UniProtKB/TrEMBL annotation:
Residues 96-109 have a biased composition (Basic and acidic residues). It comes from Magallana gigas. One of its GO terms (biological process) is cholesterol biosynthetic process. The lineage of its organism: Eukaryota, Metazoa, Spiralia, Lophotrochozoa, Mollusca. Belongs to the ERG4/ERG24 family. One of its GO terms (molecular function) is Delta14-sterol reductase activity. This is Delta(14)-sterol reductase. InterPro entries: ERG24_DHCR-like (IPR001171), Sterol_reductase_CS (IPR018083). Its main location: membrane. It is found in: Endomembrane system; Endoplasmic reticulum membrane.
Amino acid sequence: EFVCTNSTRMPSPRKGKRSTSKSSSRSRSRSRSRSRSRKVLKSPPTAERKTRSPARTKTASPARSKADTPTRGKPQSPARRGRSVERAVTPTRRSARLENKAKDPEFKEPLEALPSMDKSKRVPKTTHREFGGAIGSFFMLFVLPITVYGLNIMCDKKSCKPRKMKIPTDLKLFFDWEAAAIYLGWIAFQAFIYLLPIGRLVKGQPLRSGERLVYRCNGFYAMLISLAAFGGAVYLGYPVKKVHEKFIALITTGTIFSFVMSVLLYIKARRGPNSKLAPGGNTGNVLYDFFIGHELNPRIGSFDLKFFCELRPGLIGWLMINLVFLTEAYQKTGTFPPALTMVVAFQALYVADALWFEDAILTTMDIITDGFGFMLVFGDLVWVPFLYCLQTRFLQEHGDSLPWYCLAGIAILNMVGYTIFRGSNSQKNEFRKNPYNPELAHLETIPTSTGKKLLVSGWWGMCRKPNYFGDILMALSWSLACGSSTPLPYFYPVYFTILLVHREMRDSEHCAKKYKASWDRYCERVKYRICPLVY
């Protein structure tokens, strides 16, 4: 190390007579300067030269840098030497990001590296409204429950055809305490499984603030445990047909539960910080925000309410209701009806697929952009389990028998739809996890200003939403198994097609704002939206 850089300060000779002349003062100054120079020249090698790493010695340039050459008469301070060495060996930010991506497929760039992400945590007011704004949201609060009640009342054991709906006068049909206990017990049972320390912990997409929430993905285990519990109930002789008998009362309990939960979610969002709100549900209008969802990811501790409701109570409940109908049909006839059994198997595969790839839902609009309000709460807890089973309920109560070759064609259509659905979703999920995966090197992409890339080949070169196309084909196959005696079982594929077309339009509008010119190039390359050569 250098000995010193400043000489000792001499006392100021202000008191008394001057002890030296000007010449003697200059001579002392020259002697001190020569002494300081000798100290510098005789000093040992610098710390930089002593501690230079072998890699640094091999790769260093023969020419001395400005930082390595000591200034004449003014040796470098240790702090400056440390900075020069550190600057020389530190990799660039770009190379560090590439190295992290290569090591960890789950690596996400920091907030400064994502130009499309707002560094401000505050969520601005929502200006764009969907579903007709506040007026449309008000009517949807009534239209959705009436639709569920109407279809299930029209399609009963006596008949399943469109007719003038007669509202039953027996109030016990609409509410039953035993039905309420069954529904609430089912919610509590699924919540208990969700809290079990089993399954993978997966990080979600970066939020507006750059934070990434952690989710426990154990939905497939929840399905297996639920199937085992159902099998145990049947083996022990529990009358599972009560679910069928109290079907309307279960809908009432689910509707009341959805309204109460939505009110509590809205109150929680109003009392919470602005940074937690959903970008699309912050209009300031109570009705609209209540319906569309005011908070993006409401949580109680680590319990994520939206993630839990998306796939657990409703989706697994749909499968359980199907099994109730299949069990009841077997207990009546002693055989498994072919059409009913096939549809139950198809829908079980669909549910199992969603739960096996549970982490894929973390990249969907429901989790990333939509708030958790009445629209999603009612959809997850009532609409899915009590409307998606309309085909199996019809087959159990009215059971049209189709010839084997018709069932074979329907099975082929379902498998074609599932192949498109699973293949496109898997390709998308792998690309989102690690765009640098060598297995995806053959795929063509279009770069964007946000740093992300848009797929324009493979499944995603056929159309912009090939997974939606596969979904629609599967929905159609489930209804075709019901025959053509009534149009009511075809409600699901008609509704689902409208839903997916609307969702594609919402997603396209969002991407156009986000990717701008790159999205225009993408639309020129991939012309069809959902169905190749049709739409």
